Structures are given as C-alpha cells and as structure tokens.
Amino acid sequence: MKVNEVPQDIKNFKGGDKLRKLVYAVGKDGKYTGVNSAGWEAENFATRQAWDAMDETLAETEQKVKQGKLSPIAYFMQKCLMDEGLLAKYVGKWRWQVARHLKPSVFKRLDTGLLKKYASVFEISVEELVSFGQ
Amino acid sequence: MILDFKHYQHAHCESGVTTNLLRHEGVEISEPLVFGIGAGLFFAHIPFVKVSGTPGSSFRSMPGTIFKRINKSLGVDIQVKRFGTPEKAMQGLDEVLKSGKPVGMQTSVYYLPYLPEAFRFHFNAHNLVVFGKNGDEYMISDPVMEEVSTIAGEDLSKARFAKGFPEPKGFMYYVKDVPKEINFEEAIKKGIKKNCWLMLSPPLPWFGINAIFLLSKKIKQYPKKLTPRKAALYLGNIIRMQEEIGTGGAGFRFLYAAFLQEAADMLKRDDLARFAEELTEIGDLWRNFAYSAARQMKARKSDLVSFDELGDMLEECGVREKSFFKRLEKVNW
Questions:
Q1: What is the number of structural domains in chain A?
Q2: What is the ipTM of this complex?
Q3: In this predicted model, what pLDDT tens digit does every residue of B139-152 receive, in sequence order?
Q4: Which of A32, B4, B218, B277 is deepest in the core (most CB within 10 A)?
Q5: Cβ separation of A51 and B244 shorter than 8 Å?
Q6: For chains A and B, what is the number of CB pairs under 8 angstroms?
Q7: Does B279 touch chain A (CB under 8 A)?
Q8: What CATH topology corresponds to B13-37+77-177?
Q9: CA nearest to B265 within chain A
C-alpha cells in the first residue's frame, strides 16, 4: 500500500470517527512510514455489520422478554456484549446456572443478593433489572 | 503526580506500549523494530473456538509474546507483576508511579470509556501505559490513540480485572533498567528466525501458513454450510481481525515489511530490502482479499463462484507467504 492509497473513509457510527488509527504505507522514496487513516470502506462495512447483527439480536431478545419467554438477564447480558459463559465468570456462578436464570420462572425466585450482583455487572440498579420488559 | 512521558501513536497496542516504554528510558527504537524483534507476525484460524459466535482468527502471535521476546533479546530488565485483588493492583500501580516509573499493563477494551464504542468489546489483551494520577483520575497513553487520555480509577480497575480469556489479573510491568549497549543485529536475526519458525513449523492445521490454507478451504464451503447471514458475519470477522484497529494494515504484513526494511538499513543487507518489497506485495493481496470479501458481503448472494474466488485469493496469499518464509529462513547471516 502506497501513502496516497491509504483510505480515508470515515467510520461514522458509534464514535468510530473519533479515532484516526495509524497504518504503515510506502512513501514516494520507497520507505515505509506511519500514516493516519480515518478508516476503510471494507473494514467499516464489516464492523457495522457485526454491530447491526448484535442490535438485531438484542431487539429480538427484548421482544422475548416482553412476551415472558426470557428473563431480563438475557437482555442485559446481550446489551453488555456477553454470553452465558462470560457472565457466569462475572457473577461467580456456573454457566448452566446462568442459563437457568434466563428463564422467567427461575428469575422470579432469585434472591436480592444475586440480583444485586447481576445488576452491578450490568451497571444498572436492581429496580431497572427486575422491571425491564414489564 | 504526572510523569514526563512522551506519547507516540502506533499501529498495535503491544508493540506500541513496548516502544514507548523503551523510548522513555532513552532507547531509540521504532514500532516496526519492536514488532520484528518480538516475532509478532502470525496467522491462526481455529474454527471450533468461537468468539462471539464466529470462528476465531488471528494475524498475530499470542498476546505477551512480543513483550517477552523483546526484553529477552535486548537484555532489558523488566519487573512484571500480577495481583490477587483490584485493590492491591491499584495500590501496586500507585506505588510504582510514585517511584517515578510509567507502568504498562494488560486491560480489557470493553471497560475503557475513552475508546469509541465501535471498538469496545470483551477483548482482554489490550495494552496501555499509565503515566500519572490526578485525584482519582489516571493519565493514559494508549498507543492506538492519537492523544493521551484520562480514565477514572474505578474504570481502570474494572479493565484490569476483566473476566474471560485471557484474564489480565492486574498484570502490569515497568522497565527497571536498560543496558548501555544493545546488540540490535543479534536481536534482529533471532527475531526473524523465530518468526519463520512460527509461520512454517507448527505441525497443526490451525497455525501459521497451514491455517491460511485451512481458511481458504473453509471459505469455499461457506455457501454450502452456512446461511448467507452467517457467511457474511464470518467473512466480516476476518476483515475486522485483519484491518480494524491495531494491525497497521493487511493483518500486520505492512508492519513486518517496515521492520524488514529498517533491518535492511541497519544491517546493510539488500536481500532484506527485497524481502520487504515482496511482503508489501503480499500485504496488498490480503487487502485485495478484504476488499473483495466486503463486496461479497454487501451483495449477500451466496453464489458459489465468488466464495470460490475468495478462497483462491487466500490460497494465493498462503502460497506466496510459504515461499517467502521458506526463503527468509534460509538467509545466510
């Protein structure tokens, strides 16, 4: 890649335009040099596609919580970009336990201590957690 | 207390932090040189290890490799520390800052609010330098950023104790001493040999050149095995690993070519300069692959021909890199 070929396609979503990363490109003298790049069409597309997919899944999950098919933990877990395995590590439980907590019937019976733990991992209040989707 | 620390922006976090810490100690060194001596170039594709639902790919060696190798090769005296609790980790950081040393550390990306949201996910092998504390705020030199940043102590503590692989556990490091004379020539040779070994030798399909051929085959099967949506997400993930922040373009290939060019100048070796040019061409092939893959994703057509073509493009990258590293390995020193 030559210096004049370094793409400057602005990544204008989720604050991506705030960072001009450094890439290495070959100058007229044939020597490598660091050049700032606003982004590249190909990469911007891939990043946006990945975020869109997550947003779509999150919207589906929100519906399921509202319909009583999943507990609010499922929604906030995805909102925080986690899966059951990672969330389990954060709350100090086994993966299968977290998987159970995604069931509304099990969620209703969780004690306050555990709800507090979940809420603090999600950086929200217990009230926000239990009332979501009601 | 804020230390007099000069921040330079770099392509990659680990080589960037190492470069800035060494420069702070008066060692004149560039990011490409650190990356090359640290044998940072790699390729891995592990289909059965899923990261957020997509097969894991990497264009770099294991996190921590560059840092470890550069210190061994250059004879730098580094103090490395891990902690049991966030409280102790923050206390440990404050003590070293008070002693006047900037501190490098491993963090999660997710808990760094100064990074744009677009780049924040649960990736735990990020590196940054803390060079000061002002009240409850820490001063951060993050090598992928143009300018220095600040972060609340609480956030930094979370980032240092993020869960999930690889768990940072408060991992931090600082330079205690650097040797008066550094034998760069020997370090460069060792780095190149090690990197050739990394790319050529692993007798497993998931690592080095083998993994490029593996991915090439897998991509050709995408239209048969995956929904168009999944196929697009899988391709997208490869592009992100290759081009999104931290690779310097073409999955570190340009960064490594820059290293070979600098090594050629330092050691007065024309052959290395030619290797640098060749790797630039190979890097351009990788860029071409990413560009074509993005076009395929946009169309979202699972027509077999274009996935075949994408697979062929990768195969060419693999063939070229195999020949490249086989010849680089045999260079007479």
A1: 2
A2: 0.95
A3: 999 999 999 999 99
A4: A32
A5: no
A6: 126
A7: no
A8: Cathepsin B; Chain A (3.90.70)
A9: A31
